[in-house]
Amino acid sequence: MGPGIPRIRFLLILFAVGLVLSGITAFPLIHEVALLDDRFGPGTSVGAMLPGLSEWIHRVAEGLRETNAKYPFIQYGTDWLAFAHLVIATAFWGPIKDPVRNKWVVDFGLIACLAIVPLAFICGPIRGIPFYWGLIDCSFGVIGALPLLLARRDIGKLEAAISPGLNA
User: What pTM value is reported for the model?
Assistant: First the structure.
């Protein structure tokens, strides 16, 4: 099996599962945000401690409800967002199966994680997203990059062990 392959597979499966979970949670977005609003919105104990976050959650819940009531087809965009997460997760089957040959998928994932940061800080303010929410969005890129960086490092070591003369 080679040095580090079980660890590489674990890290890549962890990343792919994260993509799948974040993808499937985009389908019931209206219901999830309504639940957040019930638990953390204005009038709750969390709302009293964090009024800015509470108001933002309430505003998002209200916007989703109103938009869905008048224009339910807009939610189709989040369906495609969810689908994209699921499709990208399937791409990681390649490096899970053969990490050295498919290391480019890991590089692609790292680039995508890095690209979250400028997207959040450029598009967020344009769309009226609060700064702290942009930080939350960026955390997905940072957290996602961690297993990918570890896997990429281990893939490099594995590659060097398999063909030491080619990587010198």
Answer: 0.87
